[in-house]
Amino acid sequence: MINRDFTGKRSKSYRTTDAVAEIINLAIALRRPILIEGEPGCGKTRLAYAIAEELLLDQPIRIVVKSTHQAKDLLYRYNALRRLQDAQKAGNELAQHAWPYITLELLGKAIHQRKRCVVLIDEIDKADIDFPNDLLEVLDNLSFEIDDLPEAEHVQCLEQNGFGRTVAGDWQAFPIVIITSNREKQLPDPFVRRCLYLHLCFPETAEELQDIAERNLEVDGVSFNKAVVAAAVEAFREIRKASIQGEIRRPPSTSEMIDWIKILHWTGQSPDDLRRKSLLPPYWQTLFKNQHDLEAYPASAEAGGSGDHP
User: CA angle, 67 as apex, 75 and 24 as ends, to 5°?
Assistant: First the structure.
């Protein structure tokens, strides 16, 4: 039986489609990680927060992957340097043991706490090629070994730290694991096969974009005019269309749109200000994030000038 607890509609600042919500619910039922791809700013990271919000869970445990990360770096840390420093102090008997210098890291804590939570592993494609498969082994078993802890110290570590050489989670409270990728490198096939996959697309309709904008403005306490939001959304759609058809490397996405609409409200723009020149409206420059796109966009706007009004 699949519990369709996540709807994608109950978050204060985020909405998604029924198809995306269905994949989330299937992944929860199957106890599978969810691999999410999509253009920057499409809401990959924020989806994890929406899931936690809807399901009344704590804030997601967010892990930002670095190129130097190994899977065990997400599980525990053995502070060998501190142990060496302590060993040089007279009378420090703790340094004779490894257990005082072992602490659980974010994913290790999430497994050890044995309660339902959302774990967000952001930008997994930045890591070494072995990282995804090593991570998958941990998630498949919902347990891991602390290799730096001698077996002879297992009981003492368990008594003092609350965990021993083997750390195991609760299968009845399997964490909801969200993994994002920007496709900087291809992920291993065995890893991808064991995940459920989502590709987040840009919202297709003006209604969806307006709903997203208004939810975020309300959460941030911005007093807004619906007519301004509607005109801004229509202008934004024209700008994005011209960007995609032109030579823009990074077309603006929903995150840029929300910030832009806030600026329009703070500066007192009217719907007429936005309709008068929809492809080059006030503060259009804030929608682009690099010099190439800022310089290239006016030409794209001119080429797509059907959206402009004299």
Answer: 60
